[in-house]
Amino acid sequence: MGNGSSLHRFNEIFKILKDSGLVSGVTPEKLYDTLEKLGPTFIKIGQILSTRVDLIPSEYCTTLSKLRSNVAPISYEEIEKILNNYYGDINKIFYSIDTEPIGSASIAQVHKAILRSNNKSVVIKIKRPNIDNIIYNDIQLFKKAVSLLHLNRLIKVMDLNEVLDQLYETTMEELNFKVEVSNMIKFKNLHKDSKTIKGPYVYENLCSDNIIVMEYIDGIKINDIELLKGRGYKLDVIANILSEDYIKQAITDGFFHADPHPDNIIINGGNITYIDFGMMGHLSDKNKQLLKNCMKAIIFKDYKDVSRILVSMSTKLDEVDYDCLSDDISTILEEFGDLELESISTTKFISDMFSMLRRNHLVLDKDVTMLIRGIGIIEAVLQKLNPKISLFRVLVRSEESKFEDLLDSNKVKKKSMDVLKSAHDLVTIPNEVASFLKSVNNGDAKFKIELSDSSKHVDKLENLVHEIVLGFVDGCLIIGCVVTNDELIKGIFFGAAVIVSIWLLIKMIIDIIHRGY
Known about the structure:
Layout: H1 3-19, H2 28-38, H3 40-49, H4 58-64, H5 76-87, E1 94-97, E2 103-104, E3 108-115, E4 121-127, H6 131-149, H7 151-154, H8 160-175, H9 177-190, E5 197-198, E6 211-215, E7 220-221, H10 225-230, H11 235-253, E8 255-257, E9 265-268, E10 271-274, E11 280-282, H12 285-299, H13 303-312, E12 314-316, H14 322-337, H15 346-359, E13 362-364, H16 366-385, H17 391-404, H18 410-427, H19 429-442, H20 455-483, H21 487-513
């Protein structure tokens, strides 16, 4: 973009912001109108921002979700030029290409075509010329206008510069067609054994940095409820399959569709097919395990453990008051715990959790945030298919089922869950000790011990610590003896437990005789 055009665009952005009324106070409606007037780059940013309940309040997300890209299509002559520049002669690759696009958005344009090699219908996704630079320049100019108008001092809802940086990073990921192709291949491989969840075949040899060629999926959009009913589809079955698979994507695969809105899910024959893989989430093994542990802690109502896990998955922006965090988590989970699982609004739950995290100076890891916002998006899809379904319910019950498969009465369930919680608390003592030591090392836990000058008191304390350690080891050996099925190992644990128990008893008798207590 030349200096003259940059100056013109800057003046345009500056005027729109100045006339927007944001300087006198921001509202969801004002932000919506401003982004729409700013054009394609900011409409795209608004669409992404609408899914970022971790960054802005839920009422802003709801309003911005109504933004639609009404971008004028690139002429077919320009599309043809882009394709010929890469393929040499498109007539050797494609038998025909529809001159009218089936989709025209701010980043790319999509045309249907037929391959010459196999006569199959495909979709060609072509990136808009110079779009990377256009988006970068627009955002930099927007930042300058924000600075001149002092909008960051006036808008308390968000730090505009920080938000723009995050959204730019997300947009650049979506612009990387090589990553999208890789995502499509990985998703398809992870679902190769699924009879219902599919992804389109991608013609990797025909793809480039600016072009993707994939299988054309002809079907019904998942939000076209009346047409689905008319074709005889069972909506509750679709909802169940979709919800269970999304849990699999996140917790089992650690690789999930981060933008599962209705335009990206097609019902085709007996299949549910995802399309558009520009935004995918990757959950690390550490965070996968932490999420599983978090669900168990929620089931057991162990709010201190939930708070510890959330801190482990977050960046601390300031000192965290762990007692306050645990109380906040307890308030939210108790509120939703009083509801039937079918009545829980996942969107509200997510919104409340993110607000609580912001108050406690915590920012969740990016991959966890992407998953949570993906859950929020697909929850809205599920609600249209079956208002009684809740992804939260599916997730919780998938964990509960591991413990409750043999339970059939509420009373037995409650007693069994109490026993399981006690066992859970007992076997996680080493983790709690490790967590405590880590918090001490990080300076998050503080304690004070006062002793007199008498060496006798020090000896008492040392003996007490020795006996606590012996008692802990003895307890671990007894638990090991009970839980193992190997008779040899059981015998070893039993023998060791007897020796340690005798040793501990002797030490206690000696201490009593010498008035050690």
